[in-house]
Automatic annotation (TrEMBL):
InterPro entries: CbiX-like (IPR002762), Sirohydro_Cobaltochel/CbiX (IPR050963). This is Sirohydrochlorin chelatase. CDD domains: CbiX_SirB_C, CbiX_SirB_N. Keywords: Lyase, Metal-binding. SUPFAM superfamilies: Chelatase.
Amino acid sequence: MTTRLSLVTPDGTRRPAPPPALVLVAHGSRDPRTLATVHALIDRVRELRPGLPVHLGHIELNEPLLPDTLAALGAPRALGDQEAAGAVLVPLLLSRGYHVKQDIPRMAAASGVRARFATPLGPHALLVDTLYERLVEAGWHTPTTGAERRSSGVVLAAAGSRDPDAAVDTRRTAELLAERLGVPVLPAYASAAAPTVPEAVRALAARGRHLVAVASYFTAPGRFATECADAAPWIAAAPLGAHPAMARLVLHRYDEAARVPAGATAPALATA
């Protein structure tokens, strides 16, 4: 437990307050590539912010589960001064939905840890930077002639959710990516929402856009990302992964939330 003496140095000056720990909250997956990608992203975050305690907790399917991570953080012998600072939970999720609104706050409340809640990663300009670079890696080149622009389009393939706020967030990312690319970008979903990737491809083709790329709006490889890529009529970009911009975005969301009181959620989603 933190004491007043522990916050004072031997010469009588006050120690700087420790920062809250960053807990990256991943969904979890049976695909081993997902866990490897998450660990690579955490390594990048630690490189960018040396000295910041960074932990991982999963909502399901992988260890450590979030309740176990929070239980370890709540142990005074593990935290010391960090106990008073608590933790900022940063969802490795791209939009609002049940996990962000219900699961993560419920698990945090049960843990007793002083928690602040960051907003999901999207929408944000850093995500658009990552999506753009993944498309370029896959073979995308910005259309330069009027004919190329009229024949090109992109499908933004996302996981999908029944929560209408998730669709709002994904559509906003599609709008930002369209502004960046200069061609239409249609959101599409692997489950729980419409349209599917093949439906979005057909919708673009009906508008005369036959050169269609699929942008993978997934944090890591997995079944949904693979199925969406297989439906691409042309090129399919890799998932967002451990791109450097993703690590910067995780820390940006952490910094936003660290400025609000414990138990609160960071302000409304920022797009830039």
